Amino acid sequence: MVYVVSLVGRRQLMIAGAPLGTRPLAGLPAVIFLAAAGRCRDAHDATDTINEMPSPNIGPWRLVVPVKCQGTAKSRLNPPAGVTRADLAHAIALDTITAALAGLQPHHLVVVTSDEHTATFVRDRCGMVLPDQGDGLNSAIRQGIRQVERALGPGLTAVLLGDIPSLKPPDLIDALSVCASHRRAFVPDASGKGTVLLAGQTPGDLDPRFGPDSAREHSLRCVRLDLDLASLRTDVDDNLALRRAIAIGVGRHTAAVLGLAQFSMD
Q1: Is the Cα torsion angle 51, 52, 55, 56 positive or negative in sign?
Q2: What is the C-alpha separation between 228 and 4, in angstroms, rounded?
Q3: Segment among 80-89, 105-114, 206-215, 222-231 with least mean pLDDT
Q4: What is the pLDDT of residue 196?
Q5: Less Cβ around it within 10 Å: N or C end of the chain?
Q6: Rounded to whole angstroms, how far apart are CA atoms 181 and 177?
Q7: Distance, CA of 16 to CA of 30 (rounded, Å)
Q8: Which of 33, 12, 30 is nearest to 258 (CA)?
């Protein structure tokens, strides 16, 4: 199911009756629910209009985003009761894509996925879609890089993971602006071990090595940028990362899915 939802008003995530961030998240089960007033990243009354004001700051950049099929995505994430892993993974991907397109020319986006709902979402916004051949994450990313080279030619190119529901467009713009000063660069995730963004001056500069300890692998050829951009560096693979993303403020697709039911996360 595709959730394209406009949330009315503002919503706030609470834990055991207190605003998120005022009580520790670790060490005990947390009951999280949505109450009226604020933490959806981009809640508003309008429908999705993500290409209205592309930012000139990252206009030249081309972006490859790999997105797994809903049925196989996020195997380490245990959604709350009433929320399916597939729906949550799909919502997370849509929020990542929405944030990316807020500052990117739509035809500069290449999404590699075998998920038809995600593909439709991207095509409706004039992005390019390639079918994932099912040979793994790095293979899918290389497909996207080759497509950028074929369709758009040389120029600034980056790979963004498709699981960052807290991503704010200004943080992505800031990160790419810094990356533009280096031939090859990457931004690690919050743990410092993974990678959320890989960037190069041309598609040929990119050598994706995502997977366990990808930050170490990418640092062999790329400049490591430990930027203070929490919304970008919070990719969601497990429940702890989901809590962190919620604390920052997730996009409206993720907020809508998590707002379907009260839930408990261990």
Answers
A1: positive
A2: 30
A3: 80-89
A4: 98
A5: C
A6: 7
A7: 7
A8: 33
The strand order across the sheet containing 30-36 reads 18-19, 11-15, 30-36, 263-265
- Can you give the pLDDT at residue 79? 80
The residue type at 250: V
6 HSE (CA, 13 A, CB side): 8
The residue type found at 58 is I
Return the pLDDT at 63: 98
Give me 26's structure tokens: 């670790």
Q: What are 32's strand-pairing partners?
A: 15, 263
Q: Give the span between the Cα atoms of 213 and 217, in whole angstroms.
A: 7
Enumerate the β-bridge partners of residue 36: 11
CA distance 249 to 244: 9
| CATH class of the domain defined by 55-241 | alpha beta
Backbone angles phi, psi at 151, to 5 degrees: -85, -30
